[in-house]
Here is the input.
Amino acid sequence: MHIAAAVNSFRYYSRSRLRARCLSTIGNSKSTVDIKVVNGEGTETELRKQQLWLHNTMSKQKELFIPKVPGKVGMYVCGVTAYDLSHIGHARVYVSFDVLYRYLNYLGYEVKYVRNFTDVDDKIIARANELGEDPIKLSRRFCEEFHQDMTYLHCLPPSVEPRVSDHMPQIIDMIQQILDNGCAYRINGDVYFSVDKFPEYGTLSGRKLEDNRAGERVAVDTRKKHPADFALWKTAKAGEPFWESPWGPGRPGWHIECSAMSAAYLGYTFDIHGGGMDLVFPHHENEIAQSCAACRESNITYWIHNGFVNIDSQKMSKSLGNFFTIRQVIDLYHPLALRLFLIGTHYRSPINYTIVQIESASDRLFYIYQALYDCQILSTQHDEASLKDSIPAETANCINKFQDEVLSSISDDLHTPVALAAMSDPLKLINDLLHTRKGKKQALRIESIAALENTIRNVLAILGLVPASYAEVQIFFCCLVSSILYAVTLSREIDGPSGAYSAYYFQMMLC
Here is the structure.
């Protein structure tokens, strides 16, 4: 029996048992977390309100976040084109904006989070033709696969999740508005946006109009008035899905869908529009042009974009064929290890996926959960009624410093790596109190351990890293290691990716 067989056996076990338990509780996670400072006398006080600063792609600088409506936030994030399993580049987008969503909730905002599905697209049609499936049914299937991936990664569901196929009336109405305002033209059943009619075109990306390429996902159409003009509506081709419109049967272009659906649920003016950095041009540039052409009052305050996931210093993408799906990664590592890996680099910086990096994240995750699990075990051995209300000054100072560092770093453009690094001191103190001779003699030791565990768990909730239970994660790691060690014992070799499993030997000894 080789290592691959053992891993396949573990995949079945983990999906059928461990993740089933995990999934049953993820949807019940609190998105708003109350973090309190505990002083030396045991008094709890609310932390001061944090000012959130976000890097705005439009202004190219960090800006203080001020919502259009006090206390409320409208946020739209471009979703996936659902024709295949999502890769870890997609995971980074939605984990990054999940952290923002959670933190806005923590700060007390009422957030309306809209994330769409593109279920009508050239790529979907091409894939459906390859498989002999109906394009809409194929896309619906991969929408559900995406939902499962997001659940594994602890991404909270958005407030609204519109699909293109359900919003044709809104899309057609917006195209008609753009035509009526003189910013588009018709050619034999197609409708194109005229970039010459929008002088501000290129403001987001910093591109000059003469430098812009014709568009994305489609061949250059020589009928266009300007090479950068882009399709709002495409006339139907034989065998493709289509909808009736004033310009004849057809389907929408890629860009118009997000303008129409964001306006339908958030209005023409809202706070945050986000997505991957690859969407700055042409997708978001075209969205701005369309929305403003349809409604002059259209305005989005903050444009936020996350950096790429690279492999071998090249952007990971399906079109390049150099990608790992989320499923491929979480077949070997706990899903929250992937989430930890993704937030371990600032969301705007590129991140390079390597075995070493994901193993390091897995080891770190195990270390955190092992410490917190030990805290819980110790706490269950003591009667809560007998515990004191106060904690030592050293513990209080550690907690206060940790919380200040976490909140100041996340408020500074979601600097999650600093927040994760700040966890080192309270974890070290926990392990000292649990395992060292000096720590075991500390006054109010149990109270300190309980307070530290609670504080770290609350911060993990903001970061989306709270598992169904710490014990569940221990079982996950130990079962994987058991399968691997059994295979190694029989085969005397590891025939998987070089070094991919080495990190778990130490973990096995700890289980």
Remarks:
- The mean pLDDT is 85.
- The radius of gyration is 25 Å.
- The domain at 366-467 is CATH 1.20.120 (Four Helix Bundle (Hemerythrin (Met), subunit A)).
